[in-house]
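Page 37, top half.
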Amino acid sequence: MSGGVGPTGSDISLPKEQEVDHKEQQYHKNLRKPLTTPHKVGFLSFRQFNCLAVVIVLAASGMVSVEDFAFVVFSIIYMYFMSKVAFPSLHPSKEPLVFNPQNKLLRLYVLIGAIIGLYAPVAYILEGIFEGDKEGIKAAAPHVFLLASQVFMEGVAFSGRFSTPIRAFVPVFYNSRRIFTIVDWLRAEVHKINGSDRRIYVGRTLAVANMAFWCFNLFGFLLPVYLPKVFNLYYSGHREED
């Protein structure tokens, strides 16, 4: 015997086959273990505060309809209601992540969405202010307002207080609403006759690009890919607790 210090060469130990099996079991167990969201000390990131500033500026400028503003308020109330009634958080400090945030393809996809949906339309609105294109600004503003609101609300949902289905609720809910605003934007750009030819062409290109990207995002990614993974993670957590 080893005298309580640990196994020595003369002690009974696991055969090599059992050691290999033991290591393989540990390896597969770690693979099955989902990534979790670490508990955040802060509340929102710099990106979320920037989007909140965009929301406030557009709302104060009068370019946002009462319906769009009411939609944002309703989404906040409904998100808290659903988090209490339908999808309470199972592990508030470590909710599982659906995708690895370090995935390069996913990061590229998010960057493309930010450029098409937020950065380019904001630049289009700013240029319209200098050129006096009120028609183009009014058409693009609702989409930018709702997308900036979505980014802000995603920051709230990922603050560690909400379950994975509630986090998925935000992009699905907002993406569904924004498609209608993009349709109105595209219709306004097609029938617009005032302004330079370059600006008309840029406005139509932006509207078409946003329609294509966000329709794919909703019907090709969020609904068929993202939501099933979300519910699978959430209800597998329920089964583990039971």
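Page 37, bottom half:
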Amino acid sequence: MSADQGKCHCGQIEWEVKLEDRAHILCHCDTCKVLSGGAYTLNQIVPKANLKITKGESDLKTYTYYGDSGKAVNCYYCPNCTTHVYHHQTVMGDDKVVVRTILLNNGKDIQPGAEIFGKVRMGWEKEVAQTFETLPPM
């Protein structure tokens, strides 16, 4: 499994990630809408060991909110351009993180594989992949 390269908008933070599944997971949750300013975000859940920050790791800032589970979600972002590089949803345990797949150098070439939080998808959006009302079974 080869690693994909990614970077934030300003280039201060760079990383590589090994994706086990080459597909975007579209997240329609209300928090992703607010944080991204869009209808959904494009992500992949990966083992934490598959993500390596190669530039600017000590610069990353953290924002914490509480998800539908009531558990903390830690968002790691660039302090300069505020691009969200990855999230750690504590409900998934310590060994999984959520990376923003659209930020990968080849992110535009990755196809959708699933949609989560379909229960709050915008009414005008068409389903493009298997959709889960909230999170898929783990």
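Margin note: Helices lie at 30-36.
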